[in-house]
Design a protein that fits this description.
The radius of gyration is 23 Å and the shape is elongated. It has 10 helices and 5 strands. The relative contact order is 0.11. By secondary structure, it is an alpha/beta fold. The protein has 2 domains: 67 residues, no CATH class; 152 residues, no CATH class. Strand 3, helix 6 and strand 4 form a beta-alpha-beta unit. Helix 1 crosses helix 4.
């Protein structure tokens, strides 16, 4: 079913239905259901499920909510970019295009103007082993750094400390590129084993791409976490 086939009442009813099943404490609710179902057989199991509110209609409602939630990351990404624009554009800058959707939109970057190209990474860094986030950041930096253009290059992030720490760090390039077959082949064809570590590649190019924190522009993004699926 397409989004346009849903009514506002469908979403409201779905939330109420799931809330009725979960109660105020989902963990405790599941403990109660586990206790109630213990010892059941095929003869009385269905009645117990009905008493616990475990119905097909609730599953349908949860599926609808999950579908809606799956679009939230795209909405946040799009709004984050749009709200940044008035803060980052210069008085003489004209937007060539902005790419707001998820996935491959056919445009190389999130934003291109007559003066700059830019990528936006609205992910919250935790400071631990964040390999997928690091891989995505390196990909964006690499594609921008190697782009032949006279325009300024910007990589906008939520907080620059951890991205800078990663780019100046010693993680192996082979590890960073291990899950992206296309990017790995492209990188090896161009550079071979010239850059064994991330810092080896980044240091000669650090002035090519400006890494800028967008939180001063859109502080509302501080409480939001977005993770993007890794390409293969």
């Amino acid at each position: 079913m397409k989004d346009s086939a849903y009514r506002d009442d469908d979403f409201v009813s779905a939330i109420k239905s799931v809330k009725a099943f979960t109660g105020t404490d989902l963990t405790q609710t599941l403990v109660t259901v586990e206790a109630a179902i213990r010892g059941n057989t095929a003869l009385n199991c269905l009645r117990t499920l009905e008493e616990c509110g475990a119905e097909s209609a609730v599953l349908d409602a949860a599926s609808l909510i999950k579908h809606l939630a799956g679009q939230v990351n795209v909405v946040i990404h799009a709004l984050g970019i749009l709200l940044c624009l008035p803060k980052i554009l210069s008085p003489t800058e004209v937007i060539d295009y902005v790419s707001l959707g998820a996935g491959n939109t056919g445009r190389p970057f999130d934003l291109e103007t007559n003066e700059r190209i830019a990528e936006f990474k609205f992910i919250q860094w935790q400071g631990g082993a964040e390999t997928i986030r690091q891989n995505a950041l390196f990909k964006d930096f690499y594609l921008m750094a190697e782009r032949q253009t006279a325009k300024r290059k910007y990589l906008y992030v939520l907080g620059s400390v951890y991205p800078q720490k990663f780019l100046n760090g010693g993680r192996a390039i082979s590890s960073v590129l291990s899950r992206n077959v296309k990017l790995r082949s492209q990188f090896i064809e161009r550079f071979g084993d010239q850059y064994p570590r991330v810092r080896d590649y980044y240091q000669p190019r650090k002035s090519a791409v400006v890494i800028e924190d967008v939180l001063p522009f859109v502080p509302e993004l501080a409480s939001i976490t977005i993770d993007e699926p890794e390409e293969t």
